[in-house]
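Researcher: I'm comparing several assemblies side by side, and this is the next one on my list. It has 1350 residues spread over two chains. Same procedure as the others: predict the full complex and return the structure.
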Amino acid sequence: MSIYLHDIPLSQAQARIREALQDANLWCLLGTETIPLDENALGRVTTEPIWALVSSPHYHASAMDGFAIIAENTNGAQPSSPISFVLEVNSAQYVDTGDPLPEWANAVIPIENVESLDHNYQITKDIRGPKSIRIRAAVPPWSHVRPLGEDIVATQLVLPAGHTLRPADLGAIAASGHQNIAVARKPKVAILPTGSELVPIGSKLKSGDILEYNSLVMAAQIKTMGGEPIRYPITKDNFDSICERVQEAVQTHDLVLLNAGSSAGAEDFSAKVVEKLGTLLVHGVAVRPGHPVILGVIARSRVAATKQSPTHKEIASGEIAPRNDMVPILGVPGYPVSAALTVDIFVEPIIAKWLGRRPHELPTEMATLTRKLVSPAGDDDYVRVAVGKVGDKLLAAPLSRGAGVITSLVQADGLALIPSGVQGLEAGEQVKVHLYRSKAEIEKTIFCIGSHDMTLDLLAQFLAEHDRRFASANVGSQGGLVALRRGEAHLAGSHLLNPVTGEYNISYIRQYMPNIPVKVIALVGRDQGLIVKQGNPRGIKNLGDLSSKNVQFMNRQRGAGTRVLLDYQLNLMGMSSDSILGYAQEEYTHLGVAAAIASGRADCGLGIAAAAQALDLDFVPLFQERYDLVIPKQFTDDDLLAPLFELLTDRGFQEAVSQLKGYDVSVMGTVILED
Amino acid sequence: MSIYLHDIPLSQAQARIREALQDANLWCLLGTETIPLDENALGRVTTEPIWALVSSPHYHASAMDGFAIIAENTNGAQPSSPISFVLEVNSAQYVDTGDPLPEWANAVIPIENVESLDHNYQITKDIRGPKSIRIRAAVPPWSHVRPLGEDIVATQLVLPAGHTLRPADLGAIAASGHQNIAVARKPKVAILPTGSELVPIGSKLKSGDILEYNSLVMAAQIKTMGGEPIRYPITKDNFDSICERVQEAVQTHDLVLLNAGSSAGAEDFSAKVVEKLGTLLVHGVAVRPGHPVILGVIARSRVAATKQSPTHKEIASGEIAPRNDMVPILGVPGYPVSAALTVDIFVEPIIAKWLGRRPHELPTEMATLTRKLVSPAGDDDYVRVAVGKVGDKLLAAPLSRGAGVITSLVQADGLALIPSGVQGLEAGEQVKVHLYRSKAEIEKTIFCIGSHDMTLDLLAQFLAEHDRRFASANVGSQGGLVALRRGEAHLAGSHLLNPVTGEYNISYIRQYMPNIPVKVIALVGRDQGLIVKQGNPRGIKNLGDLSSKNVQFMNRQRGAGTRVLLDYQLNLMGMSSDSILGYAQEEYTHLGVAAAIASGRADCGLGIAAAAQALDLDFVPLFQERYDLVIPKQFTDDDLLAPLFELLTDRGFQEAVSQLKGYDVSVMGTVILED
């Protein structure tokens, strides 16, 4: 059997790559280039301190439109005893803002503080005597003058090396007399997707095909970091082909990212490729997600290096970076979340070093964990979390931990790090979260929990237009009520049928949220029905057909709302579950039921229209269930939720929902309960 | 006399431009375009919700390399009683990560949990019976399987409209089956610099020339906001030329920024140009810096509009935005800080609306003001501040308020807003600061105050390489000691001579910082001497020559350290100040003295070598003064300052300082006093 890769601690892996780069003389600025000072310099990193070549202003300048005068001559001017000045040298002279102060003058009186003795002329630069002006207040020397060097003094430091250029910086550099600027050369990063199962974005998919989008995400990450990504086409899982591609990439890039094949399976060639072409430094890092990470270095072939190596003069001039013989290579795991986090963790510090800038750092906040997290003790574990402020508490709600769930990165407001040595954290414990979003954005987030429904997606869309973010976590209806009791969300979506009374939600609210005053508002009526194959070949019309037509049924697991509904309806009909072929077969989601039907394992199952639609199946509506929003009274008057309540009576929103298949908006906004 | 512009409140100005854009049907998404889904989509804004076209995974996929089995068949497997499976359909089958689960299977056992019964074969996909495997633990259904739709369910909302795309978003969009994406068209913004005094970046400057770099800063701002800036060449101050340029720009752009000429001076044409070509909505906004702001709208000429107007089909397809007849124009004030802030305040909300995204918002923190701020009661006043954490206090130190001082924007860590209605704030009061930097960066900032010296620029540069920011505020030596007493900085630079004892700093520290234990460390010895014209035509060699050679002297103001030094030296020499021609003439800075000499108003003055160097003057060194760092004991062991102390004994730093003219590093690091 294959020997599995051997994980080493994250800090050790980072140290090993740093040492290898130091040995190769690559743990430093990669190179510098001189570029013109224009808006494309934005975001580039300075490689040298920028010293001012000229002062700004480079002369004493008038700060206002007005009259240059000698301040001492204004002494004694008062409202009751004005002083007059003839417009001539050594007395007064008109100046526009920015004009040089005449050599004999040492102050400017703004035009609005001056009276003209002669009303029939207009003030312009060309005024000469015998006109005159009158003032009624003395001015101190240097009033309304921008002295030479007020902004910048020639020879002063304008910006340090290692500074990432922002708009105002470009102005200051220009003001200090520069026309060009030395910045760090952008590291060229080759991104090589490999895998026989990979197909390009936009391909028509067949079973087993995997869309290759990691290279896209990684290229965007490299761009964000200030590097220059180059995406290669997909290489099949073939040792020789991958070797050839890597060899090629190494010749013309500063870093190679080899995606997937980094584990130890039958077709995982990355480690062997690195071993063959260079030195394998690390195979496996104790970090989750991402652990099958490979780090290595490969030498450029001497021929290529010689052919392209620059002269010493070119290197000294800073126009061309010295070519180094070694090129680092990173074997990036294939799961998209692992790939993205691996690039953040391992590549960002290298690019930062190469550009000479400070590594990007996310702001951190302490937050309360909404549910228990288990973590392997030996790993640094990065958990994607949704972050919201509910009452006074900043909450971190763990999202899907699946390394294949790219949407968990999209929905994440931050990353909670569970360091190696910690085996897990209990709900309610404080956890440090590295935030992707600003606190202001997080404070505009409505935190919704409970059962998922497509209407919530639309609600999110509409709320975005009202300056609110809507983050919803799917923990099922019961889970949502429990979370509300613990103060972990602003509201919950619930569709819990009481099988005895046929009433929705209220008895469950009393059971799971005792003594918490709530408001319950109906969101939608939602069709439940039978998901059947396209064209409904078995002609199934109702639950009765399940026993009479000998059809294969697929059930939901015990406890699921849909199963409660089925049992309630069978009971009303006096029908026995024994009469249904497949009643004991269980799937865990609406979509699981739909997939079973699509694949032919079953003829039908009970579920919602959306699940049928997602897999191009047909749907026979049977019952309508009510989906409610449950809101603790403490939040009902909160300004945060106001736009949500407005939307429930908004025509546009109601129309958008009614266009979804299987939804009834007539109940929307009806208050079901108010404590 | 010219009538001055009439300021209206900021909120009213913003409302007026919003209404004008609403009237022109321009207060909405500007247009949409479909682009390929690649890394160039980064930072673009979605204009439609993105719904999933396919599920991901689109089949039940193995989550590990291992064996697909039927979970129920593993029941009863235990360490002591293993169960064996033959490798065949309905029993066990090898799968790689990502492979489809065979239809008959419902779980995967990872390869590392499986024993081979037959050691002489290697596991590959092509294995067929009669090989077999053995397991020693039961697995539940769906273990190590990524069920269909685990990440994305076809038809679900992947991203809302109005979302700015990040790297992971691109992956999720690709995973959900899209190959192209609808994003907001980038608004085209014309930037028109006008002014006869303007010269392009890099020009050789003569008196009165002003480097035109506002268009560069504004273009970079527009780029940062997501617009497409187009910079026009400089137009001279000529009404007809400006009209022509504006007319031209209006035809092909969505917004026109007309820079300078927005005030009411003799050559300020912007308001008249807008009035002639369109409608002037606002002239003057009560906001500082920036108040002579102009807002207006201009109609595109009908000919051009007709010629280029798209068909309804093109508009409906979203490929071409409807052409609107009205184009907003903003008259931007000429001072660089005013220009930049005007663009932030007025243009960012328009671009945000046009792109359909949330306006950019800076994070805010409350900070303690280090000195009194006076503000006109009627204005919204934006004050650039340096922000640092000293002890437990977050401090905001106001920087230069001059609208011409672009370096104040470069040095600013944030903007403190003094709203209209507030006349000013006292030192020690809390002020809300909109932060340009993260809290983490601010917490790595060493806050230095007092007398400025070029060595501090070098120190900043060296500290940047040790993960520290060094922010220094120039308030003079005495001001620095007072600030330290108030707990407003980590250290102060001081060179205060006691004219009685000839000793530096200590007596002043006891006077201004009583009962505060300090450490005083010498930074440098610094030459003071006579700044003279190039080539020293009057042959001035010492202070004695000031009386004997009938030279014109330029003095510093009373209280300046350099004046104290002069008087101390005159006293030692027994020389009377009356004997110096120009002793009563005062300048306020080293550079002011140098400028007076450069312009011929004086022959010499006392100052530092750097001031002479800045204006290409000569320097006659006479005395050396000591420049010390004063550090309250509470900070001397702080980790924050450790790299600073290390640098004082660092060879590289000492060498860099000794290469500056007029500096002596032999005293560097000497402890002068330690309480």
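Model: For your comparison table: The radius of gyration of chain B is 35 Å.
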